[in-house]
Write a structure and sequence with these properties.
Elements (H helix, E strand, L loop, with lengths): L2 E12 L2 E12 L3 E5 L6 H8 L7 E6 L2 E2 L5 H4 L2 E4 L11 H12 L3 H10 L15 H13 L5 E5 L7 H16 L3 E6 L2 H7 L2 E6 L2 E6 L1 H7 L5 E6 L4 E5 L2 H12 L3 E6 L4 H9 L5
Parallel strand pairs: 3-8, 3-9, 6-7, 7-8
Antiparallel strand pairs: 1-2, 1-4, 4-5, 9-10, 11-12, 11-13
Helix pairs in contact: 3-4
This protein binds adenosine-5'-diphosphate and magnesium ion (MG).
Magnesium ion binds next to α1.
Length: 282
Amino acid sequence: MTQLLKLKHISKSFGNKEALKDINMTISEGEILGFLGPSGAGKTTTIKILTGQMTQTSGEAVILGQDTRKINEKIYEQIGIVTDASGFYEEFSVLDNLMLFANLLKVKKERVNDLIDRVGLTEQKKQLAGKLSKGQGQRLILARAVLHQPRLLFLDEPTSGLDPTTALEIHRLLLELKEAGMGIFLTTHNMEEATKLCNHVALLNEGHIVEFGTPQEVCLRYNTNKQYRVMLNSNEEYVLEQTPENIRQISEWISEDLLETIHSCEPTLESVFLEVTGRELS
Ligand SMILES: Nc1ncnc2c1ncn2[C@@H]1O[C@H](COP(=O)(O)OP(=O)(O)O)[C@@H](O)[C@H]1O
Ligand SMILES: [Mg+2]
């Protein structure tokens, strides 16, 4: 798979505050990389460096073969960005907002209509963008960011503050885009979202990557105290450690057909994060 993005030993200081320390990572085609961390961890700073909006103090960032300190129009044509600062023209309709960019980017009108359907704004097509709900507005911003079929998409907390249904619709769209080969750099503090969407996750705390891997790898690395949660037909519930005695008990329940449900209790990304950093995500 073609590599789309590479960060090598990136550090960034603001005055004497080190916001990023020795960040290394890559993204390939068809991959969603989750950059996870609490507020102030350095997620937005990383996106700004990667998209040429800020210069690192040291290290090298390359996207689509180009050093991000010398990013040019040709590269901007192949990337999409959704950040807090992304907006739209409130006094234009949904369709006109997208058509304006479609004309600039030489995108066909059919693609605009198709994308409006895919982000679920068909009914709002003629509506003024300023009258959209927060979730609808976020979907319009996302539609605009992928209008020109970028190879690489940067999303800074795209579902933050959205209702669960809208967040699910955005997840579905991101998975479709990934399947089509787009590389996606996603920052989030929502660990469930990351577990569901990301091929790899980097856990960021105070400017450091403290864990990296697939969501499952990262969770299993912390599965030291193996436990099973069982429920019997009688509705009795137990959480049992993996000891020879408990295993015998569980197999007895199974053979006597008394077991209703059984689950392994490996940690979630959320609990791993808490263990590694001692911090709650919020
Ligand atoms: N322009 C700036 N000037 C000074 N400090 C900044 C600037 N941008 C970010 N920071 C600091 O860098 C750290 C990381 O910020 P940021 O990347 O916005 O975190 P996140 O997006 O993970 O919430 C924070 O401590 C923040 O205060
Ligand atoms: Mg941020």
